[in-house]
Amino acid sequence: MLVSILLFTSLSTLVIALDNGLALTPTMGWRNWERFRCEVDCETYPNDCIGERLFMDMADAIVASGFKDAGYQYVLLDDCWPAPHRDSSGRLQADPKRFPHGIKALADYIHSKGLKFGIYEDFGKKTCAGYIGSEFYLQTDAQTFADWGADLVFFDHCNAAAKDMKYGFPIMEFFLNKTGRPMIFTCPWPMDNRIQHIKPDFPAIRKTCNMWRIYNDIEDSWDSVIGIINWWSKDWYNMSAYHGPGGWNNPDMIVVGNFGLSPDQEKVHFGMWCIFAAPLLLANDLRSINNRSKALLLNKRLLAINQDPLGIQGKPIQMGDVQVWTKPILPKGSKAVAVVYTVQGGNFIRVKYPLEFYGLDAGEYHLTEVFEGHDLGQHNKSSVISFTVNPTGIYMFTAKPVN
Ligand code: GLA
To answer: 34, 38, 79, 281: which to mutate for ligand 1, most atoms within 8 A of CB?
Structure first.
């Protein structure tokens, strides 16, 4: 019903193309969901509840701890922020106890730090956590987000009919564009297609969204991280072909710095999200993150791989106990390589392949180990590169042609 009303009123002017010029490299920022979920008891948990304090604190920490300088720019307010009712003009409003100054004031604060603000909603009746949704109010809500100063809108699809997705996301993108405010648009369209066993229309998805979720919500565990990596290796419906500047497959947030991953597993998680050229949205507590995890997230060599202007999604050349992934990067002819040892026990494994195994067979290359920055020297296709990888660990290097 909603869809047909909106279609009749707006199809004549609907531009089915994402022309907002945003997200030319994978979006970097912080998002509360995996770490802070939907904690709304601000009396018991004043520092950890979904309220303005948490997001202001995190904006401060992004600046103070060097995350802003490294490129992390967006502060994203996920589900559970709305009050139960719209105001007398039909506009959304934030929960008044947890956001006493309103969302515009929060966005202003985040902007005052030189950062950008993103907000979550859902085109169904209710959000995934049961808060008021945007159904019947898409245009009003798009304008409200623009008026509040949003720079990104994360639009979910709970509590709405599957058949509405192909209309709902493009219509919301149309209304966002119409506001004239540039806002990154992110959606879970193919993820929902997968759950409903519908073949995703990737060309339409890419025309509509700047990033789109493909797979299950990430959790703070090795099973979850390796599950996403293994699933990514299947290149579902050739999804990597639609990934690149302006539109990104999104394997979900980064959980480095939380409770569930070992130091090696954190390196696998972050290293592989860089090989994927995935959006880097940190779901952790930047006020108290340990120095080792922080250094990993700020590693310039890893971030350069992730943010490489070509925006190519890395692919596996070998799966199994020893996974090998490669990603073309600049300068032309260069590659980033990741070797993941997925076995969960025993000792480290020694890996010895000639450079040509990695598809590096055109002359001389200069190799650099990525995590510590060790210079590995110059090699040609027959040089055997030897290194060890720990159980549930990773080794990464870049190879750049020597002219
Ligand atoms: C869905 C999304 C999550 C999060 C929650 C909020 O599950 O996939 O990332 O936004 O909704 O309720």
So the answer is: 79
Tens digits of residue pLDDT in 365-386: 999 999 999 999 999 999 999 9
Q: Whose CA is nearest to atom 1 of ligand 1?
A: 128
Contact between residue 23 and residue 247 where contact means Cβ atoms under 8 Å apart:
yes
pLDDT at 403: 79
Å from CA of 159 to ligand 1 middle: 12
Cβ–ligand 1 distance for 219 under 6 Å, the answer no
- In angstroms, the CA 277 to CA 286 distance is 22
Q: Of ligand 1's atoms, which has the minimum distance to the CA of residue 154?
A: 10
Ligand 1: atom nearest CA of 127 is: 12
- What CATH number belongs to 315-401? 2.60.40.1180
pLDDT, residue 98, reads 98
Q: Which two tokens stand for residue 324?
A: 């090998």
- Residue 341 CB partners (closer than 8 Å, separation 6+): 321, 322, 323, 348, 349, 351, 389, 390, 391, 392, 393, 394
State the distance from the centre of ligand 1 to the C-alpha of 296, rounded, in angstroms. Answer: 26
Q: What spacing in Å lies between the alpha carbon of 363 and ligand 1's midpoint? A: 47
CA distance 192 to 238: 17
Question: Is the shortest distance between the CB of 355 and ligand 1 below 6 Å?
Answer: no
SS3 call for 172: helix
Give per-residue pLDDT as tens, 3-51.
443 443 343 333 333 678 999 999 999 999 999 999 999 999 999 999 9
128 Cα–ligand 1 center, Å: 6
Cβ contacts of residue 41 below 8 Å, gap of 6+?
49
Q: Is the CB of 156 under 6 A from ligand 1?
A: yes
Cα diameter, the chain: 72
Atom of ligand 1 nearest to the CA of 217: 8
Q: Find the Cα–Cα–Cα–Cα dihedral 109, 112, 116, 118, rounded to 10°.
A: 10
In the chain, which residues have pLDDT < 70?
1-18
CATH no. of 2-306: 3.20.20.70
Domain spans in the chain, listed from the N-terminal domain onward: 2-306, 315-401
Token pair of 102 as six digits: 């309103």
- Active site includes 217? yes
pLDDT for residue 286: 98
